[in-house]
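Attaching the record inline, Q. Sequence:
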Amino acid sequence: MGLTIGVDIGGTKIAAGVVDESGTILETSTVPTPPTPEGVVDAIAAAVRTVGAGASAEAVGIGAAGYVDDKRATVLFAPNIKWRHEALKDKIEQRVELPVVVENDANAAAWGEYRFGAGRGHDDVVCITLGTGLGGGIILGGRLHRGRFGVAGEFGHIRMVPDGLLCGCGSQGCWEQYASGRALVRYARQRAAADPERAEALLGLGDGTPEGIEGKHISEAARAGDPVAVDSFRELARWAGAGLADLASLFDPSAFIVGGGVSDEGDLVLEPIRKSYRRWLVGARYRPHAQVVAARLGGRAGLVGAADLARQG
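Structure, as predicted:
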């Protein structure tokens, strides 16, 4: 199969792109994400038609944040869009008259990195995305591992701390409450409130209050060596690395790929994650260690991965 179209559904925008067999995006179209579930369906179809006009695309892959069934057709649950058992494949196929594959967005991004990014040369890869929350994807033996019901890889909701922090999913102690962009902000605000003098530089980047600290302020301050910001990144990395050590016991990959906005800080966060991973890895002195590397495709991974999964059929 030649050209395919990938779609990445975000909270504020829907991006569609024509992608060739080498993972190159040839053309893109972006539309705002509508506020209603049915409006999102219409916007996806409009973006696909726009980007596909004049291109001989043969299939469409859609990356959606939520649980996607084992047939890659129905979004069982998407909290941000309020889809419940949404027959997305059928609805989009009727509108665009092309075969459609629906996949979880983190799975699509993991596949994109495996095929065209940091996972090239590896057959067994586990990806985590440290964004607002924590997502992930699993590649085993060169195949995307989706589980029997299609919802494997929801790493963010592994319970790391029994009776820990309340998560948006309704459970407590989920991994993403301790290793995510949201967790990073919480760490920095708590430290700034406890020791405002030590956090003076960080507080100055916001409105002067702990509540005014945002992720971008923490990154800027950490790059300048601010101790509170650096400590906040280290705390996030400690939890991220400990989780990777647990995943190594489950999947034994040759590489962990770390993506998402937090990973944009490079070794500022990656090196502490590696250190924590080595610290908590069972039998670390006697077994090979997986590489822990940064994702390479950035925001393109989900779109490129979805398009390639459509090509795979």
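The chain has a mean pLDDT of 95. The chain is about 35% helix and 20% strand.

More tomorrow.
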